[in-house]
Model the fold of this input.
Amino acid sequence: MKEIKLGERGIGTGHPPFIIAEMSGNHNQSLERALEIVEAAAKSGAHALKIQTYTADTMTLNETSDDFMIRDFESIWKNKSLFDLYQEAHTPWEWHQPIFDRCKELGMVGFSTPFDGTAVEFLESLHVPCYKIASFECTDLPLIRKVAETKKPMIISTGMCSVSEIEETVETARDAGCKDLILLKCTSTYPASPENTNILTIPHMKTMFNCEVGLSDHTIGSGVAVASVALGAPIIEKHLTLSRADGGVDADFSAEPEELKTLVLETRRAWQSLGTVRYGYTKAEEASKKYRRSLYIVKDMKKGETLSKENVRIIRPGLGLPPKYYDILLGKSVSKDIKKGTPVTWDIV
Done:
């Protein structure tokens, strides 16, 4: 599997996890707050900051019939119209450049999720380095095709998608020119529960679609993200807000800066711990070998005396013969005078 680069960072199992902070609508319609979120993401150690590119009119119609209302009992957006939700959550297009500029200044990759063809054309005018496709647009094959034709890396969330739907999307992207493709396991509930996250799907998807597979994480906390890294996820996407108490359309399932900092730290530790398949001691453990158990003389002995349970024991440190020789040595005589505290070696038997 060839290496993919986002900005200067390589993506894959040979690299630390790439953490994307998703701003979404947490700017609460304030450019000043949006730029503060960019700065908080950078201070937390995120490698990229993502926004979303749409308007309410490009997403839906300004209607309040049942088709256009959110009625889900558990939804945090219950009883909003789709139009009102997107009007509240959208990032004004004139903010994109200053947001991307601030990302660049702070050493992060700045990019976006387009939701229709006009958004792709706009983002191309800003020379974004890559694209993200949201789970709800994963089956929008015309959009997939248009983004793939830019020849830039694509990150595609797969929430709710069947295997056949992902296959269609992957084939469409590759046929249209996408060479660098990353899928994200995603659960499209807000927030998502760990029980419904099913991250064992990550290595299965990686094998099935022959590409890197990360996680778009809507759960609370960092446990699921850490576990996904252990399963091979090279990318984690997490919503970020300055404070959940400030409210906003996505605040309830977004991480605060200190939580994101913890996620960055713990996912990197998880990645560092993977190593390789290895048995035996490592170089770092070499000194610890001394503290294994071994055979020691525990009473002063004269030459010719017999080794017994009273004068030889299995104790720490590990400088004598291994414990597996204990039964073999019992009943053998010693070849010289031995002091208490002497490790048992073959030359004294």
